[in-house]
Amino acid sequence: MAEQQTADVAEGVRQPEKAPNEWGQALAALVLVGGLAALVLSGTFQQESGDPEPAECHTSDDARPSKPLSGMRLCTALNRADLPTLLGTPTDYAMTASGNETVGDWADGTRTITPEAEVQLSTYSVKLSTSDDDIPVAEMAGLLGSSAQNRTVGGHPAVLYSNRTIALKFHLGGGKVDTGPGGIARSLLVAKDTEDGGGFYEVSLWRQDDVLPDDLALFRVAETVLPTVPGWTAG
After folding, report:
1. What confidence score (pLDDT) does residue 106 get?
2. How many angstroms separate the CA atoms of 124 and 85, rounded?
3. Which residues of 152-175 are buried (b: 16+ CB within 10 A; e: fewer)?
4. d(CA 144, CA 147)
5. pTM of whole model > 0.85?
6. Using one digit for the tens of pLDDT, what is the confidence trace for 106-121?
């Protein structure tokens, strides 16, 4: 049987250097969030002796920060020292952190830039992005499936919904990749302003072990992180 090893497939995410025997068997999960694809590494790390240093925010070398809010600024807001505590896993620490912009070119000639950030811990991965879509968040529940629920975060209209991840398993020797259903990602769309006049933030959370994420953890992250993002208005 071919040995299995995880490859770092996330664009703009730089893994800390690890010797081959320090990796456990792992999966990479493709999570579809808000029409965008984010590749995430999941697996098990052999922890070094001593206290680990949390990951620093990185970006791809060719990234051109958008104005006024960049992916790196979102990463700075998300990659908090107390993020593991907010997630309910206080002994975890950030292994990778990245901030980038996704560029979309449309048939009518318009271009959209979506800043996004992602932090991966040993138990959870968390993603934060923002969009200038002019559809009110309160109307999006009907577009996100029967399980979507209208909620409120910091006085802002919000929608809580689920996505299914796709698991990708990589095999050494032959480059074979197996795909299959992964776990569940829980996401919050949160209006940029209390009047829900257009534009939203999205906070998404999924576990590396495919266990259903804790909604209370998702709300704690959103309620703590979003007020630190430039442009947020208090409710």
Report:
1. 75
2. 12
3. ebbebbbbbbebebbbbebeeeee
4. 8
5. no
6. 777 777 788 999 999 9
